[in-house]
Amino acid sequence: MAELTIAGVDKSYGHGEQRKQVLEQIDLTLGDNEFVSLVGASGCGKSTLLTLVAGLQTFDGGDILVDGKPIDGPGLDRGVVFQSYTLLPWKSVRANVEFALLAAGNDSASARRIADEHLALVGLSQVANAWPNQLSGGMKQRVAIARALSYKPRILLMDEPFGALDAMTRHQMQLLLTRVWESHRLTVLFVTHDVEEAVYLSDRIVALGANPGHVKAIFDVDLPRPRDETIMESAAFTALKRHVLDTIREDMPALPAF
């Protein structure tokens, strides 16, 4: 059975004449340990779809199932990482990770042990006692990833997690994410506006069309794993990147003539 199933999902905002359909008849299935990226023009509903899967918003119709069971709000089976780091500034790095574990029912000793294991996983053991305002953006995002993984979710949901980082840090985070994904063996739904990032990370890429958001195209990423930066120089990588970009650009408004 597929781990995540999205079937006929509709989502709108507002009422009456102000009602706006954001997503229409979204059908998508993610298998166990599959890495799927959502791409598309701005406003096509990528982030909205991810928040629906996270259980942070309700939807108008359709079904979202994890292992065949309908979701009913947020759950420990789904970890979420946003572009903003969402760390608690009054807690240390370790305490930020422990906070999620204690909320999940772990005792203090177990929470500390698991927190330290996951901080080591993302290479942050040395700053466990630091405060969030002492960390760089990339380090804050690593804490957020450690926290999201600490209670062992089946699915990791990521909404533009590296969008605020500089190019070098972003690439380091991509490498880290692939290493963590390969070691944790979990399903990932990843929202990004960066097509190169989507091709580099994913097993499949889902392009959403706009007005309202719908599944326009799905691309299989037939590139070998494990991947490193040299794969970006291959003809297959370049061709797929161009194909995905062309599909997205069809929904973008034309630039005015000068």
UniProtKB/TrEMBL annotation:
Recorded superkingdom: Bacteria
Domain ABC transporter positions: 4-235
Keyword Repeat part of the UniProt annotation: no
Keywords, sorted A to Z: ATP-binding, Cell membrane, Membrane, Nucleotide-binding, Translocase, Transport
Gene Ontology MF term list: ATP binding
Any Pfam family hit: ABC_tran
InterPro entries reported for this sequence: AAA+_ATPase, ABC_transporter-like_ATP-bd, ABC_transporter-like_CS, ABC_transporter_ATP-bind, P-loop_NTPase
Record-stated family: Belongs to the ABC transporter superfamily.
Name of the protein: ABC transporter ATP-binding protein
